[in-house]
Design a protein that fits this description.
By secondary structure, the protein is α+β, with helices and mostly antiparallel strands. It is built from 3 helices and 5 strands, in the order αββααβββ. The strands form 2 sheets. The chain has a 3-stranded antiparallel sheet, covered by helices on one side. It has a two-stranded antiparallel sheet with strand order 1-2. It is globular and about 55 Å long.
Length: 144
């Protein structure tokens, strides 16, 4: 039994030197896509930043409030608030990599923004690009 646990820990989860995860995308050979190292962290960061806070049942503080900033004024103050939100939530929930560079671009129509993040983990670099606009708002339809 211990051999199966060791094998699971090393081959599926990862060793002390390599981290692994699986994406919910089916690849050509029919399995989930296995990712490792910086790609695992980028996937984790994507999940954190695109999950609205107070929507994850067992950890209501998990996620970010970036979706609330879609209709904020297109000024330097909003850009700084977006950067602070990203840095704060990533440091709380997944601080394995460092943010090398972050760029926030307000969309021309003033209804949204995009974030480009360059991350570094053990000498490897990865990038994450996110877009928030009026089509990404979670709509809850109530009784009328």
């Amino acid at each position: 039994m211990a051999n199966l646990l060791d094998r699971f820990s090393k081959e599926v989860i990862g060793s002390d030197f390599t981290i692994y995860d699986y994406l919910s995308k089916i690849v050509a050979k029919g399995d989930f896509k296995r990712i490792k190292d910086i790609d695992v962290i980028i996937n984790s960061w994507n999940n954190i930043l695109t999950t609205p806070r107070r929507t994850f049942l067992f950890d209501p503080e998990y996620g970010s409030d970036l979706h609330k900033m879609i209709f904020e004024p297109a000024d330097d103050n909003t850009v700084e608030r977006i950067k602070q939100e990203v840095q704060q939530q990533l440091m709380i929930y997944d601080n394995r990599a460092t943010i090398e560079d972050m760029e926030v671009l307000i969309k021309p129509n003033g209804k949204g923004f995009s974030i480009n993040i360059l991350a570094e983990y053990e000498g490897n670099q990865g990038s994450l690009s996110l877009s928030f606009d009026d089509t990404t708002i979670v709509r809850v339809e109530g009784e009328q």
